[in-house]
Design brief:
- This protein has 103 residues and is mainly alpha-helical.
- The protein has a domain at 45-101.
- 45% of the residues lie in helices and 0% in strands.
- The protein has three helices and no strands.
- Helix 1 packs antiparallel against helix 3 (86-98).
- The longest helix has 29 residues, at 48-76.
- The radius of gyration is 21 Å and the shape is flat.
């Protein structure tokens, strides 16, 4: 009896942090991309305040989105699981302090 293997284009190996021992085979959903496009450009000194405002607006949006996700997780899974988002929220709140070096 001959065993055929699936073409390598159909099989991919994903490695992550194990939460339980063993091997799993099945369908998965991969959320996001491996690489985010980052554009680099020089800005003029008079554009710095505008860019800082853009950063602060993005951070505010990020905090709002994280809070919404945290509320949904608390409702669906409980407060303990929702507490995992506290670290991300704290970082999003502290990042502007690091940004003071920009100007």
């Amino acid at each position: 009896m001959e065993i055929s293997q699936p073409p390598s284009t159909l099989e991919r190996k994903f490695v992550g942090i194990g939460v339980s021992p063993g091997i799993v085979t099945g369908k998965i959903f991969v959320y996001g991309k491996n690489e985010l496009p980052i554009s680099h450009r020089m800005i003029k000194p008079e554009e710095v305040s505008l860019e800082i405002s853009r950063l602060e607006k993005a951070l505010m949006t990020t905090r709002q989105q994280l809070q919404e996700i945290q509320k949904r997780v608390a409702k669906d899974l409980g407060e303990v699981d929702a507490a995992l988002f506290d670290a991300q929220l704290l970082e999003a709140k502290l990042l502007p302090l690091h940004g003071q070096n920009y100007a």
